[in-house]
Specification:
heterodimer; A: 113 residues; globular; B: seven-stranded mixed sheet; four-stranded antiparallel sheet
Chain lengths: 113, 114
């Protein structure tokens, strides 16, 4: 079954450091891919999405992700972490030909001063 | 304002009781979803619906039921058959088909069995 794998349930960085959150998908056909962010006790908010146009996708709050078909990856990056980036981040996929939105297990990002 | 509303925010259930979680959207979205969130397990899909009067089981449908009588509404019933219902429940809606877009989420309902 189509799924996404997020490597690392917790990531810690210093303020100003690079943020890298990893996501790999399992499909021979590129699916729709998404990154969402969740703040405590709230719903999820879309950061960015890949829908087969540009492979480098820019999102809100300075985040971006690069779709790499050869690596079946869609890693999320931000050049310089801010304290307000501390949250849980979810990678999600919509398998081709479906409307079924499937999430990874999430990565909690901590940002230290 | 357009959006998706879940109620109540907190819900307490006695063992053996059925409870219904409400989800309403005014975004004119065709697709709606229910997820369960547990620490360390991400969001797991319970049920989803692509059109009125039709819905499909997700990965963990046992012990849950849904209805989709109106486009705007997708209530979830947690039945007594669900053995471990304590969790955070999230409802979402989106456009569907080849133009799949952003999924909008409600603020969630935290269900606790007492």
């Amino acid at each position: 079954a189509q799924s996404v794998t997020q490597l690392g349930s917790h990531v810690s960085v210093s303020e100003g450091a690079l943020v890298l959150l990893r996501c790999n998908y399992s499909s021979s056909v590129p699916p729709y891919l998404f990154w969402y962010v969740q703040y405590p006790n709230q719903g999820l908010q879309l950061l960015l999405k890949y829908t087969s146009a540009a492979t480098l996708v820019k999102g809100i709050n300075g985040f971006e992700a690069e779709f790499k078909k050869s690596e079946t990856s869609f890693h999320l990056t931000k050049p310089s972490a801010h304290m307000s980036d501390a949250a849980e981040y979810f990678c999600a996929v919509v398998p081709p030909g479906t409307d079924k939105l499937i999430f990874g297990t999430g990565t909690r990002l901590q940002v230290f001063p | 304002d357009g959006g998706i509303t879940q109620s109540p925010k907190y819900l307490f259930r006695k063992e053996g009781q059925n409870v219904t979680l409400s989800c309403e959207q005014n975004l004119n979205h065709d697709a709606m979803y229910w997820y369960r969130q547990d620490p360390g397990q991400g969001l797991r899909l319970i049920y989803y619906s692509q059109i009125v009067n039709d819905f499909q089981k997700g990965d963990i449908a046992e012990g849950y039921s849904v209805s989709r009588e109106k486009k705007e509404s997708f209530p979830l019933t947690v039945t007594s058959a669900q053995k471990n219902p304590t969790a955070f429940y999230l409802c979402a809606s989106s456009t569907k088909g080849s133009g799949f877009g952003e999924a909008f989420f409600g603020q969630g309902t935290r269900l606790t069995v007492v």
